[in-house]
Amino acid sequence: MKIGYTDNPVSETLGIFPGSYFVSVCSSPELLSKNGFNLIELHLQTFGEAEKEKELKRYVTKIMRCFDLVMHCPFIGLEGGTYRLLLPEKVLSNTMSEKADINKIIRVEELCGELGIKFLTIHASSAMKMINEGEYSNFKKTILKLNWLAKSQGVMLCVETGGLSEEQLVDLTKNGLNITFDTSHFFLDMTQLGIDGEKANQKTLEFFISNQIYIPVVHMSQPVDGKDAHASILDSGMINVHKTMLNFIKDKNLNTRVIFEFKPNPNLKAEDYFKR
After folding, report:
1. What is the 3-state secondary structure (H, E, C) of 201-237?
2. Of 72, 83, 136, 156, which sits most exposed with the smallest number of CB within 10 A?
C-alpha cells in the first residue's frame, strides 16, 4: 500500500479548487515523507503544463528518492459526440472550453513512460455529470485506443469515477481498463441517481471491495453540502466509510495507491488516518 497527497510543481491554475489541495501550498514533500507518506499524485491541470518537460523531469528525479508517483491527466470530458478538454474551473457548469487533441493526451502517456510513472488517471466526465449511452460509446472507443497506446509505453491507464454508472465502470474493466476510484465522485454520482445516505455509503464500500482487483489507484476526499469540495476525510460529512476502506486495504495488504485529494495537515502522520 502506498499513501500520499497531490502536488503540481508547474501549476498554471493554482487556487481553482476550494482551499487548494496541492502539497506545495502548505507543506513540503520532505515533511510528508517524515510523516510516513510515500506517494505523490502529479496532477496536471492543463496540457500546457505537460509541455514543461525539463521542470517536470527535475521534480520527478528529486521526488522519486522518497516517493512513488502516479499522474493525473488534465481534465477532459464529452460534449455530445466531441471529445473535449474540461478545465477544472468549468467543472461546475460542465462547459467545455477547449478541444482536447488526442495527440496531447498521447503525449501525456509518453511523458509518463519517459518519467517512469506507471499509472495515469484520466476523466470521462465529472461528479454528478452522468454521461449518456451515446457519449459513453464514443468515450469507450477513444479510451480503448488510448489504453492500447499507454500499454505500449508501460503505463496503466485508469479511468476515474465521476459521471459513469456502475455498469459502465464494470464494462470498462471487462475491456481491459482499470479504475481510479474517487470516493467523493462515486458517492455523489449515487446521490445524483437518487441513492442517498447510508445506502450510498454502503454502495461506495461494496463497489470498491467487489472491484478492488481493477482499482490500483484510489482518491479520497469528503464532499460538503452535496458538492465535490475536496475536504479532509477526517472531517465529519456525507461519507463515513473512508476509515473502513483504508483499514481494509491495510489488513488485506492490497497493492493500492491511495491519494488524499485535500490540503495536507502538517501535524498528521499517515498512521493517524487508520486509527480505529
Report:
1. HHHHHHHHHHHHHHCCEEEECEEECCEEEEECCCCCC
2. 156
Q: To the nearest 10°, report the CA torsion of 7, 123, 109, 2.
A: 50
Distance CA 276, CA 267 (A): 19
Domain membership of residue 69 as a residue range:
2-274
Question: Pairing between strand 68-72 and 119-123?
Answer: parallel
Per-residue pLDDT of the chain (276 residues; tens, 9 = 90+): 999 999 888 876 544 454 555 666 456 788 899 999 999 999 987 788 889 999 999 999 999 989 999 999 987 654 554 544 444 444 444 443 445 567 888 999 999 999 999 999 998 888 888 888 888 888 898 899 999 999 999 999 999 999 899 999 999 999 999 999 999 999 999 999 999 999 999 999 999 999 999 999 999 999 999 988 889 999 888 999 999 999 999 999 999 999 999 988 889 999 999 987
Number of structural domains (the chain) is 1
- The CATH code of the domain that includes 127 is 3.20.20.150
220/31 Cα distance (integer angstroms): 20
